[in-house]
Amino acid sequence: MKVGMIFECGPQGADVKVCKHLARMVIPNIIIEHETLSNKPKLVRECGKTAENLLNDGCEKIIIVWDLYPAWRKEGEKPCRKEDRDMIFASLNKDKVDLSKVHLVCIEEELEAWLLADTRAINTVLSKPTHPVKVPETRKPEQVSNPKKRLNTLFQEHRGYRYNDLVHAAQIAEKIPDLARIKKSCKTFARFENKLTSR
């Protein structure tokens, strides 16, 4: 199966690395072609043409992935998933994209919520041979306000430096032993998996 994915980050962004790795855990032989649109305003504005190009390149379906909160959130900002969806569909319709082949996955609040779902992976990344780490379970990671900040706190506490999503997000994802916890505690990941596997 060849799937196209569209992300709101740079070419080497955390979303690309994590989602592609997790997608291969779901479907080991999946072929993924991806495009990055650098930020959410650009994604909602230009995803139509990008989706059209991916479908023309032979992708069977397109999954558009974005964070509810932008990378640099403003104090008190409350983004709206419905507004994001409406703008995405407007872009898709403008370029006459077959909507039956496009699936939207809005991560609540941001990608790091998925990573917080499995502390086994976080413990592995944070631990050293002489200093094993066991962080508390995050029972409802999608309800954590600013999950990136939470990971930053853990990295500073146990490693003495800040969490860097461009480096550490993929490291954590690669240490997730199975998808049981993330599927159970993250509805948006369950949606991601469902859209990958549905026909």
Question: How would you concisely characterize the structure shown here?
Answer:
The protein is of the alpha/beta class. The protein has 9 helices and 4 strands. It has 2 domains: 118 residues, 3-Layer(aba) Sandwich (Rossmann fold); 62 residues, no CATH class.
SS content category: alpha/beta
Number of domains: 2
CATH-defined topology of the largest domain: Rossmann fold
Taking all Cα atoms into account, the compactness measure Rg is 17 Å
The largest sheet has its strands arranged as: 2-1-3-4
Continuous helix count: 9
Task: Provide structural commentary.
The protein is of the alpha/beta class. It has 2 domains: 2-108 and 187-197, Lumazine/riboflavin synthase (Rossmann fold, 3-Layer(aba) Sandwich); 113-174, no CATH class. Helices cover 48% and strands 13% of the residues. It is built from 9 helices and 4 strands; from the N terminus they run βαβαβαβαααααα. It has helices spanning 14-26, 40-56, 81-94, 112-116, 119-126, 147-158, 165-174, 180-185, 187-197; strands spanning 2-7, 31-36, 61-67, 102-107. The chain has a 4-stranded parallel beta sheet with strand order 2-1-3-4, with helices on both faces. Strand 3 (61-67), helix 3 (81-94) and strand 4 (102-107) form a beta-alpha-beta unit. Helix 1 (14-26) packs parallel to helix 7 (165-174), helix 2 (40-56) runs parallel beside helix 3 and helix 5 (119-126) packs across helix 7. The protein starts with a strand and ends with a helix. The model has no long low-confidence stretch (mean pLDDT 94).
